[in-house]
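Quick one, probably user error.
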């Protein structure tokens, strides 16, 4: 076999494997995009029988729309807490020399990875119960934010370390306080990092099932990740029409947020400062 023919065959095989891999990941997305408009959705490849009845049924569900609003409250609340506290902590850890600082950061990151929601389920519930945070959005926000803060601080510290100290020294010469320096000098430089942490926090909270299921007792407060598991028929079979329609609406906010932030910042690991 000649060398050009062998190269051609290898190229054909490579692109065939890439096409198969693309189809493997694309087919579920195509099903998710078409099933909500199908009168009788099935887990098979078929042309949909177009209808908007599934959206009407979902709108009439007493908990579906409220669950999306609850997810927004939890995601936005957690993002505000995580971004604010991690920015303050990252700035302090970046500028103040504390013995064992790096070891403390790695220890917090390690513990946040090992002690997951499942392992800490009982003590978290008992603590929330003692503090009167059961069945409240604030309790869920605090618990989720506490689990995400170590990684967020670790990420933002790397961004803060890249800010030239000369910028801050110039601001202090004119009498700027540490908080003013952080707000007007450091934050503009690390905005891509703040956006990255914010998107990551929203994505983590948006899809979290265990903590809201554990702490929220009222059905009208349950987020979408919990309510989705209630879409079953009386015979115990999954209602594919409602599940697919709700999944489409459930995924849109995160996708739109990612596209907006990606277009705005491009997730570039650098920033800029205005004169």
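Nope, works fine. Designed sequence:
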């Amino acid at each position: 076999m000649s060398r050009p023919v062998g190269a051609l065959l290898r190229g054909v095989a490579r692109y065939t494997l890439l096409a198969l891999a693309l189809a493997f990941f694309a087919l579920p997305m195509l099903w998710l995009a078409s099933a909500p408009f199908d009168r009788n959705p099935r887990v098979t490849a078929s042309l949909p029988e177009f209808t908007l009845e599934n959206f009407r049924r979902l709108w009439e569900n007493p908990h579906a729309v409220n669950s999306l609003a609850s997810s927004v409250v939890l995601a936005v609340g957690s993002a505000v807490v995580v971004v604010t506290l991690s920015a303050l902590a990252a700035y302090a850890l970046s500028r103040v020399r504390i013995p064992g600082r790096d070891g403390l950061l790695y220890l917090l990151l390690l513990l946040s990875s090992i002690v997951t929601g499942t392992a800490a389920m009982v003590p978290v519930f008992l603590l929330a119960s003692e503090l009167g945070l059961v069945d409240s959005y604030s309790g869920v926000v605090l618990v989720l934010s506490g689990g995400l803060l170590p990684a967020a601080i670790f990420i933002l510290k790397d961004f803060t370390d890249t800010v030239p100290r000369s910028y801050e020294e110039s601001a202090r010469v004119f009498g700027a306080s540490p908080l003013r320096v952080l707000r007007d000098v450091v934050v503009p430089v690390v905005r891509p990092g703040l956006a990255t942490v914010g998107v990551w926090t929203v994505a983590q909270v948006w899809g979290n099932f265990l903590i809201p299921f554990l702490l929220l007792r009222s059905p009208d407060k349950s987020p979408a990740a919990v309510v989705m598991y209630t879409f079953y028929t009386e015979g115990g079979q999954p209602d594919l029409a409602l599940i697919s329609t709700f999944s489409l609406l459930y995924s849109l906010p995160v996708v739109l947020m990612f596209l907006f932030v990606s277009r705005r910042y491009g997730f570039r690991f650098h920033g800029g400062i205005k004169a």
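The chain has two domains: 3-51, 64-265.
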